[in-house]
Amino acid sequence: MKIERHIHLNQAVSTNSYIKELLGMKTPLPELSLVDAEFQTGGRGQAGNSWESEKGKNLTFSLLCTPFFIPAHRQFVISQVIALAVRQTLNEYIDDVEVKWPNDIYWHDKKIAGILIECELMGAFIRNCIIGVGLNVNQKEFVSDAPNPVSLAQIIGFSMNREFLLNKIIENFIALYEKAKQGEASEIAKEYMNVLYRREGLYQYEKPDGSRFMAEIAEVKPTGHLVLKKEDGTEETFEFKEVKFVI
User: Fold this and answer.
1) Mean of the pLDDT values across residues 91-105?
2) What is d(CA 74, CA 68) in angstroms, rounded to the nearest whole number?
3) Which H, E and C letters describe the chain, residue by residue?
4) What confidence category does residue 43 fall into, taking pLDDT thresholds of 50, 70 and 90?
5) Contacts (Cβ under 8 Å, ≥6 apart) of 140
């Protein structure tokens, strides 16, 4: 399996939006297509958050895949696959890279990459999936109000070849995607849990109403739901945006 179509843009509102526009115009795209941009004017994170990226310094790209083999209720495996692919790539250069549930990439307590996944369902299965990735590579200063950004160059002290990093991420993604296709989702989930941010120990969490509590991660279900075990031993299950880490 390989990238069958690669579109490089100087500028886009967002690479996810660009792919959606192509699909909306009935533009035929191969099973695995890639769009990357030097700059995004409206880069997005999860739940509508903005994503700061200096032009020509980072990686902003989207992958289109058609994982018909994954039931709609198990689409979280795609999130695990891309998060692990980015983490594996970064792990070749820096230590302590972890996946913060559901799919942010963290180095220590700082965010180095964000992922936005948008799937179109067809009945009980996934028709197509657009995977957007923003990876801070060579940016030295961040000026937005993002609370904890960091780039690879800030950590290692020198700039990296972005095209090389992109190719490595794609290579790792394809290897993991093939494992998922071969029915090895449980192995992918096990690796995901092993590299999960704050996997062990009690930490503070916050609900949308502002209430805070101490808990530890009990498990992440195949559906992507986070199960937290509180100090009193009770467990509670959360969907994305129903709880957040206090950092």
Assistant:
1) 97
2) 11
3) CCCCEEEEECCECCHHHHHHHHHHCCCCCCCCEEEEECCECCCECHHHCECCCCCCCCEEEEEEECCCCCEHHHCHHHHHHHHHHHHHHHCCCCCCEEEECCCEEEECCEEEEEEEEEEEEECCEEEEEEEEEEECCCCCCCCCCCCCECCHHHHHCCCCCHHHHHHHHHHHHHHHHHHHHCCCHHHHHHHHHHCECCCCCCEEEECCCCCEEEEEEEEECCCCCEEEEECCCCEEEECCCCCEECC
4) low
5) 151, 153, 154
Task: Note the pLDDT tens digit of each residue in 215-232.
Answer: 999 999 999 999 999 999
- Which amino acid would we find at residue 204? Q
pLDDT tens, 167-215?
999 999 999 999 999 999 999 999 999 999 999 999 999 999 999 999 9
For the record, the structure tokens of 181 come out as 């296709």
State pLDDT tens for residues 113-165.
999 999 999 899 999 999 999 999 999 998 876 779 999 999 999 999 999 99
**Strands 110-122 and 104-107, sheet pairing:** antiparallel
Distances in Å between the Cα of 25 and the Cα atoms of 35, 120, 177, 226 are 16, 15, 27, 37
Cα separation, 184 vs 64, whole angstroms: 21
What is the pLDDT, as a whole number, of residue 147? 75
What pTM does this model have?
0.93
**Chain Cα centroid distance, residue 29:** 22
In this structure, are residues 2 and 174 in contact, taking their beta carbons and an 8 Å threshold?
A: yes
